[in-house]
Amino acid sequence: MESIRADVALREPRGFPAIAGERKSARELLVHQLRRCADRASLSAGLRVLTQYVSASHYLLVRHDLSLNADIDFVVASDWPFDMVRSLASSIGANHVRMSEFERCCNVMQPSFSHLADDVAVPDGVSREYCAIAFNVGRVRMAFLLLFPEHIILSQSKLRDVGLLAGYLASVCCRPAMRLERESDLTDREIECLYWIAEGKTSDEIAVILGISRNTINNYIASVMRKTATKTRSEAIAWAVRSNLV
User: Domain limits at 218?
Assistant: First the structure.
């Protein structure tokens, strides 16, 4: 979608009613409607409001921590065709694994664009290019994926609004039900090792502090990196900081 990078002035979307006889900006109307959806804990309704605001045709909200599963349990809410979601599952997981923890942190709230594979069937009039906006809800990493009609001109400012407000909506509607499995697997001793690594201590120093062997410390650290899908101690520290563990 060549025109997808262009920015346009904010226009009041169809379906956003006037409030108390006043003419509100599109952003004010958006916030007003999302507040009502949040009060009712209506995630799908709020996502439809965001989809309409940015002139998208379909929305898909996913959890990255579950995207490596063979099924589609990683989907939180969606109106994408089912076959499209199934075909996209492996690429979502693969892209997440390829990124370092630092790259994941830098990618938060930044709209990125990707193309669907040629063998994926898309609805008539819908572009093969989709937008993904990653954000964090507490310790859970999520992404809001949007499909658009062909040849549409998108607003970068609206996309930034959508990323921020999708995070807000998910935090209100999803937080009680969320539990990050990899985090729940971390033991108290593993979290303790993460803390001392973040303080700049070596394995030998941590072994002295905790009164256990250096090899045991290294085993704890290796277990942390396996559970958190990180490759280095620096990435593990970044993950712990983002997760408010240290």
Answer: 181-242
Long-range contacts, stretch 195-200, CB < 8 angstroms, 24+ apart: 195/240, 195/245, 195/246, 197/221, 197/233, 197/236, 197/237, 198/237, 198/240, 198/241, 198/246
Specify the residue for token string 């989809």. 51
Query: Which stretches in the chain have pLDDT values below 50?
Result: 1-22, 67-70, 176-184
pLDDT tens by residue, 144-153:
999 999 988 8
> Please, what sign has the CA dihedral across residues 38, 44, 49, 50?
positive
Q: Looking at residue 78, what DSSP letter applies?
A: E
170 and 185 inside one domain: no
- C-alpha distances (whole Å) from 208 to each of 100, 202, 205, 246 are 31, 10, 5, 20
Helix (H) or strand (E) holding 59: strand 58-63
